[in-house]
Design goal:
By secondary structure, the chain is α+β, with helices and mostly antiparallel strands. The chain is elongated and about 105 Å long.
Length: 854
C-alpha cells in the first residue's frame, strides 16, 4: 500500500494547472490532458480524472455514473452506463488511456472519489466550485473544436440522446433472447389493438359524431376496485365488443379505442401495469375532449406546434383538480401516437408533476433480423402473408419507413430499374415526409420479390403493393400483418416492449454513426440529406429521439481530438506497448508524421481488463419461433379458445383460419368435434343433425359459454395446467357435460359431482373461491356428503348458502367466484359468472377429441 507521505509527494508534484485569463477554454483543457499523460498519480485518481479528460464524462453525471460498474457491452468495447436525472440511459465508451488505468485499478476506490478531486487537479483546491464551473466550460469548448454539431449539442444537454439499455446489449452479446414469460392474455388479446389500428388505416366511417367515444367513456365508471386484473379483463372484453362499432364510426374513434386497449394491455410509459384508477381517470377526462379537438382534422400531418395548441386548449378547459390527470393522459396519448403514427415527440411539459416522455431506446440487431427472415423462409404459413412479412422486414430494417408509409405504397410507387428499385414515398405527415428512396436490388431481395409478384399477377399501378387481390383498395390481412410482425420481433428478442417502430430507431441509429463522427467537409450536407431520407423536419429530431448508438462516434471523436496533442516518445511509450526506440524507428519508416505513429500505437494497445460482460446475471434463452409460422403446429388449448372466441365474434371461417394459422379444413374439423361435444351437453340443444352453420350460430348465441372470458384473472391460471394434463381429465369432463344445466354447475348427481370436483381440484381451482348453494329441497344428509367430497379434494369445508327455489335451478349447485368467499356472506352475482370456466372445460373436451383423432 502506498504510504501517505509518498502520496502527498506525488500530489504536490502534479503541477496543477492554474487559471490563466489569456488562455481560452480549449487550450486549458488540452493542457490538462497533456498533464495527465505526463504525470504520475495513484491509479484510481488517475483513472477518475481520465474519465473526464479522455472519455467525455460530464461533471453533472458523476453521481449517477459512479453507482455503476464498467461493463463489456459490444464486442471488446467497455463502457460505463448509468440512468441520468431525466431517466435516460447514458453510456460512455472507455478509451485506451482509461482502459490501461482500469486494468490495474480497484474500481471501488474510484467510486469513492469526490468531485473536489477533479477541482483540485484542474485549478486551485481553495476554489472547487469555480474550478468545476471552469472545467465544464472548458470541456465544452474543447468538444466544440474537435466534434460535429450533434456531439457538441449532446455534451451541453441541448440535444440529449438516449443510449441502448444493458438488456439490449445482452441480446447482442449472447445472440440470445431475453427470458420473459409470455402472458397468454397479451398474446391472445393483443390482436384487438391491431384491429383497432386497422380501423385507423382503413377507415369505414368519417367520425361524424362522438357516440361510440361516449360509450367508451361510459364503460369506465367504477372507482373502488378490489380485483384489479379482473376489472381490466372485463373492460378489455367490453372494448372488444365496441371494436366493430368503432371501425364503422371512423378512424379517430378507432384510434381512441386502440389507445384505451393499449392502456389496459400495456399500461403507461412509466408503469406497464397501470392501476385501474389511473386508467379510469385518463379515459374519463380525455377521450371525449380529444375527439372533439381532433374530429375531421388531418392531425397525422401536423407539426409539433399544432399538437401543442390543441393540448393547451384541453388543459385550459379542464377543471383545476383534474389538470394533473389531463396532463398525464396527454403524455400517454401522445407517446402512443409517436410509437404508432410517428408524430413528433412532445417537448412541452403540461404539469409540474408530469415529466416529459423519453424515447424508448431499442434496436433490432443484425442476427435477430436474419433469424426472423430465416423463420419466415422456413415457415409453412399463408404464402402471401409470408411474402408480405419478409418484404416488410427487409425494407424497414435498412431504410427509414413509417409503417403506414410502407403498407400504403402503391404498385406504381416501386419501379425496378437496372440495379435499383426507385420507391416514391408520398408521405403521410408533412412535405418533409414526401421523398424518393433508391433501394439496391441485391440488398432488398424480399422486397423486390414482392414487387415482381404483384406485377406478375397483373395488379394495377394504383393498387396497394401489400394489397389483397380479392379486396381491391384493401391491405392484405392488415391486422394480421401487424400482429405477426410484432410477435416475430418479440419472439426473436424476448423484449415485450419491442414493436415495428423499433426498426425506425434501428435504421437511424445505424445511419447516423458516420455523420456523427464528422471530420469531413460534406458533413452538413450529409446531415441534411439524412434528415430528408428519414422524413424528419430537422436532424435534431433524428438525434434526440432515434439515435441510440452514440458512444462509438463520441469515442472516435474524442480520439481524433486527443491525437492532435503533441506528445513525446517517452509519453507514447508509457501508454502503448512499444518502446521509444521502436516508435522512433517506426516513425522513420512511416509516411505518417511521428505524432500519428505515436497515437496509433496508443490506440492500438490492448490490455486485459477484468470486467464483467453486460449479459452477466441477465436471463436469456434461445429464441423460439412463434407458433403461427407453421400451419402444421400442434393445436393446443389456447388455440382452441382463440378459434372459438373468433367464432363468437362472428368472424368468417376463412378469417379465423388465417388469424390462427390453420387451414379452413382444420376449423371445420374442430366445429365438427364441437357439434359432438354440444350434443352430449345437457345445457345445449345441438344434435347431430345440425349443420356447421347451425353449430356456429349456437356457439355465438350461447350465453353460458364465453371464450374470450377464459383469459380473465380467475380462469387464466387454469389454462396452463389444463394444457399439460388434459388427457387425464376424461371422467371429470364427461361429468361436467352432464352436470352443466341452465348455466348452473349442478351437484344433484353424487357420482358425477364427485368426478367434477376432482377435476376442479386437478385444475387447481382456488379452494377459497368455491362454495355450495342449495335450496330447501336439498336433503341435509346429501349436503353433508357433498361437503365430504369437497373436503377430500380441497381439504376444507366450503361455505354453504341457502337460496330460493327457481325454475331451472338445481337444488344443489357449485358457486365459483372471482373473489374469496367468506362464510355467511353470499358472494355478489357479478363475481359468479361461470362462462369463462365453461369455455375452458368445453375447449378441453374439444382438444381431447381432436388429439385422439390425430
Amino acid at each position: 500500500m502506498m504510504r501517505k507521505s509518498t502520496l502527498n509527494r506525488a500530489l504536490s508534484k502534479s503541477n496543477r494547472i492554474t487559471q490563466l485569463s489569456k488562455e481560452n477554454g480549449a487550450t486549458r483543457f488540452e493542457a490538462f490532458q497533456l498533464r495527465l499523460l505526463e504525470i504520475e498519480l495513484p491509479a484510481h485518481i488517475h483513472l477518475f480524472l481520465s474519465l473526464f479528460a479522455f472519455d467525455g464524462l460530464r461533471v453533472g453525471d458523476l453521481k449517477k455514473a459512479m453507482l455503476s460498474q464498467p461493463l463489456r457491452y459490444e464486442g471488446v468495447k467497455i463502457g460505463l452506463g448509468w440512468i441520468d436525472e431525466d431517466n435516460r440511459q447514458q453510456r460512455i465508451q472507455l478509451g485506451s488511456i482509461s482502459l490501461r488505468l482500469l486494468s490495474g485499478t480497484d474500481w471501488a476506490l474510484v467510486q469513492k472519489l469526490p468531485l473536489t478531486c477533479l477541482a483540485e487537479h484542474y485549478l486551485d483546491r481553495e476554489a472547487p466550485e469555480l474550478a468545476l464551473q471552469m472545467f465544464t466550460r472548458d470541456q465544452v469548448a474543447w468538444v466544440s473544436e474537435v466534434a460535429s454539431g450533434p456531439t457538441v449539442d449532446h455534451s451541453q444537454g441541448i440535444v440529449p440522446m438516449t443510449a441502448l439499455s444493458d438488456d439490449c446489449y445482452a441480446r447482442l452479446q449472447t445472440k440470445q433472447a431475453l427470458a420473459a414469460e409470455a402472458d397468454v392474455e397479451d398474446i391472445t388479446l393483443e390482436g384487438a389493438l391491431y384491429q383497432s389500428l386497422e380501423g385507423w388505416l382503413e377507415p369505414q366511417g368519417k367520425d361524424k359524431n362522438p357516440t361510440v367515444v361516449n360509450e367508451i367513456s361510459e364503460l369506465f365508471k367504477r372507482k373502488n376496485v378490489d380485483d384489479q386484473q379482473g376489472y381490466k379483463s372485463r373492460k378489455l372484453q367490453q372494448c372488444l365488443d365496441k371494436l366493430s362499432d368503432a371501425i364503422e364510426a371512423g378512424p379517430l374513434t378507432s384510434l381512441i379505442l386502440a389507445w384505451v386497449i393499449h392502456l389496459l394491455l400495456n399500461g403507461t410509459k412509466n408503469r406497464s401495469n397501470a392501476a385501474v384508477n389511473t386508467i379510469i381517470g385518463y379515459v374519463k377526462v380525455f377521450v371525449v375532449p380529444i375527439f372533439s379537438a381532433l374530429q375531421s382534422k388531418d392531425f397525422e400531418r401536423w407539426e409539433l406546434s399544432t399538437f401543442e395548441e390543441v393540448y393547451d386548449g384541453l388543459m385550459a378547459n379542464v377543471m383545476p383538480t383534474s389538470q394533473g390527470t389531463m396532463a398525464s393522459a396527454i403524455k400517454s396519448w401522445h407517446h402512443f401516437l409517436v410509437g404508432w403514427l410517428d408524430v413528433p415527440p412532445l417537448k412541452k411539459q403540461y404539469h409540474d408533476e408530469v415529466n416529459l416522455s423519453i424515447p424508448l431506446a431499442n434496436v433490432l440487431w443484425q442476427h435477430e433480423y436474419e433469424l426472423i427472415q430465416t423463420w419466415l423462409a422456413n415457415a409453412s404459413l399463408d404464402p402471401r402473408l409470408g411474402r408480405c412479412l419478409k418484404a416488410m422486414f427487409n425494407v424497414a430494417f435498412r431504410k427509414r419507413f413509417r409503417i403506414n408509409e410502407l403498407l400504403k405504397l402503391r404498385v406504381g410507387d416501386a419501379q425496378i430499374l437496372d440495379n435499383v428499385v426507385q420507391v416514391n414515398i408520398h408521405g403521410t405527415k408533412s412535405i418533409y415526409s414526401k421523398r424518393r428512396i433508391d433501394l439496391k436490388i441485391d440488398q432488398f431481395p424480399e422486397f423486390v420479390e414482392l414487387v415482381r409478384y404483384r406485377q406478375d399477377e397483373l395488379a394495377s399501378m394504383g393498387e396497394y403493393l401489400f394489397g389483397d387481390p380479392n379486396r381491391i383498395g384493401k391491405i392484405y390481412s392488415l391486422s394480421k400483418l401487424y400482429t405477426c410482425a410484432n410477435h416475430l420481433l418479440k419472439s426473436a428478442t424476448g423484449d415485450v416492449s419491442i414493436r415495428f417502430h423499433t426498426l425506425a430507431h434501428t435504421v437511424v441509429s445505424s445511419e447516423l454513426i458516420v455523420p456523427m463522427v464528422g471530420g469531413t467537409s460534406t458533413l452538413t450536407n450529409s446531415l441534411h440529406q439524412l434528415s430528408s431520407d428519414f422524413g424528419h423536419y430537422s436532424i435534431l429530431t433524428s438525434f434526440s429521439e432515434y439515435m441510440h448508438r452514440y458512444e462509438g462516434p463520441i469515442r472516435e471523436t474524442i480520439d481524433r481530438g486527443i491525437s492532435n496533442l503533441k506528445i513525446s516518445y517517452r509519453v507514447a511509450e508509457r501508454w502503448s506497448h512499444k518502446s521509444s526506440s521502436a516508435l522512433r524507428k517506426q516513425a522513420s519508416r512511416s509516411e505518417s508524421d511521428k505524432q500519428a505513429v505515436q497515437w496509433q500505437s496508443i490506440f492500438s494497445f490492448s490490455c486485459k481488463v477484468d470486467v464483467q460482460d453486460v449479459s452477466v446475471n441477465r436471463k436469456v434463452s434461445k429464441p423460439n419461433p412463434p407458433t403461427f409460422l407453421s400451419s402444421n403446429a400442434t393445436i393446443n388449448l389456447s388455440n382452441i379458445l382463440n378459434i372459438f372466441s373468433d367464432v363468437q365474434r362472428e368472424l368468417s371461417l376463412e378469417i379465423i383460419a388465417l388469424r390462427q394459422s390453420l387451414s379452413v379444413q382444420d376449423i371445420n374439423d374442430l366445429l365438427r368435434i364441437a357439434k359432438g361435444i354440444l350434443s352430449d351437453c345437457s345445457n345445449s340443444r345441438v344434435d347431430f343433425s345440425f349443420s356447421t352453420e347451425l353449430v356456429v350460430r349456437e356457439l355465438q348465441n350461447a350465453d353460458w359459454i364465453w371464450f374470450a372470458k377464459a383469459y380473465f384473472a380467475k380462469e387464466k391460471t387454469i389454462i396452463k395446467i389444463a394444457q399439460k394434463s388434459f388427457r387425464s381429465f376424461s371422467a371429470g369432463i364427461n361429468a361436467w357435460l352432464r352436470l352443466i344445466e341452465n348455466g348452473y354447475f349442478s351437484l344433484e348427481d353424487q357420482l358425477r359431482a364427485d368426478q367434477f370436483l376432482k377435476l376442479l381440484a386437478q385444475l387447481n381451482i382456488p379452494k377459497n373461491q368455491v362454495a355450495i348453494a342449495y335450496t330447501n329441497a336439498c336433503n341435509r344428509h346429501y349436503l353433508k356428503m357433498l361437503q365430504a367430497c369437497f373436503f377430500e379434494y380441497f381439504h376444507l369445508t366450503v361455505p354453504t348458502f341457502e337460496v330460493g327455489q327457481r325454475g331451472g335451478r338445481p337444488y344443489a349447485y357449485l358457486l365459483f367466484s372471482s373473489q374469496n368467499i367468506l362464510t355467511n356472506v353470499m358472494p355478489k352475482s357479478a363475481t359468479l359468472s361461470t362462462s369463462g370456466l365453461n369455455a375452458i372445460l368445453f375447449s378441453i373436451a374439444v382438444l381431447r377429441e381432436f388429439d385422439s383423432e390425430r
